[in-house]
């Protein structure tokens, strides 16, 4: 889930931003939440961590301090380079300073814009942050990412057993984990291209080699538990390559 933090010292402006975000998140049913809204710089800094699932909206001027938000952004960058930062401010002239200090904000929204334009920019920034978060999960071999409706989830790869296509249904697969069975909208071909650590043992099955407990070469069956209750077929033409793949994991 994308966690959104908001720093704004104008109560009415903060309320307007929060109200719009809540409506948008609820209406679109997106995987995000407003984790904090405040005028306290320290509270924001105390809430950030090295995780990359955070989007921060910062006003630059807090109270009488015209660069408070920029210094906060620098401190956030000291914690993580992947946290998304959006400045939403009246100080258009400060944009150059954010470049000089290499803050690399996701966006710079000027409050003098029409309210519809500001809301559209906020909407785009939330969606882009979600896309970046999904991309990071897909490029991380420790997790398997998938979508249900408009929400994005990640499953520890160690928990993934195998994925099977749903017969007679295009772009529908079933994810089998140690704890659950989840039907998702995707294709084995697409998943195989995303995750190099999964292996196509059969035209209808992708497996996580690290979750394999045993392999029966007589019946061409892959087992994921000692009782032999959780299994999937192994295509004969894939047998040699798959055995080699399993040996490589054992040697690791």
TrEMBL record:
Keyword hit for Acetylation: no
Every Response regulatory domain range: 3-126
Pfam families, per database record: LytTR, Response_reg
Residues bearing PTM 4-aspartylphosphate: 59
Keywords: Activator, Cytoplasm, Phosphoprotein, Two-component regulatory system
One Gene Ontology MF term: DNA binding
Domain HTH LytTR-type: 144-248
Role description: Required for high-level post-exponential phase expression of a series of secreted proteins.
UniProt-recorded name of the protein: DNA-binding response regulator
Organism in which the protein naturally occurs: Companilactobacillus alimentarius DSM 20249
């Amino acid at each position: 889930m994308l966690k959104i933090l908001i720093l704004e010292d104008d109560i009415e402006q903060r309320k307007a931003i929060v109200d719009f975000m809540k409506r948008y998140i609820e209406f679109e049913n997106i995987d995000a939440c407003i984790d904090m809204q405040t005028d306290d710089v320290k509270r924001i800094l105390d809430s950030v961590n090295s995780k990359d699932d955070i989007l921060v909206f910062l006003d630059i001027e807090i109270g009488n301090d015209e660069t408070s938000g920029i210094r906060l952004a620098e401190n956030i960058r000291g914690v993580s380079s992947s946290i998304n930062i959006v400045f939403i401010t009246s100080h258009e002239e400060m944009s150059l300073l954010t470049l000089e200090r290499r803050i690399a904000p996701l966006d710079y929204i000027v409050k003098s814009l029409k309210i519809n334009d500001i809301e559209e920019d906020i909407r785009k920034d939330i969606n882009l942050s979600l896309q970046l978060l999904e991309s990071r999960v897909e490029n991380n071999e420790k997790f398997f990412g998938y979508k249900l409706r408009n929400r994005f989830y990640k499953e520890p790869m160690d928990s993934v057993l195998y994925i099977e296509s749903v017969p007679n249904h295009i772009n529908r697969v079933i994810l089998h984990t140690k704890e659950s069975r989840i039907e998702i909208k995707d294709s084995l071909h697409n998943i195989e291209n995303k995750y190099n650590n999964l292996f196509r043992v059969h035209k209808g099955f992708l497996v996580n080699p690290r979750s394999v407990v045993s392999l029966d070469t007589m019946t061409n069956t892959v087992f994921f538990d000692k009782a032999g209750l959780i299994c999937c077929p192994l295509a004969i033409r894939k047998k040699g390559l798959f055995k080699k793949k399993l040996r490589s994991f054992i040697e690791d």
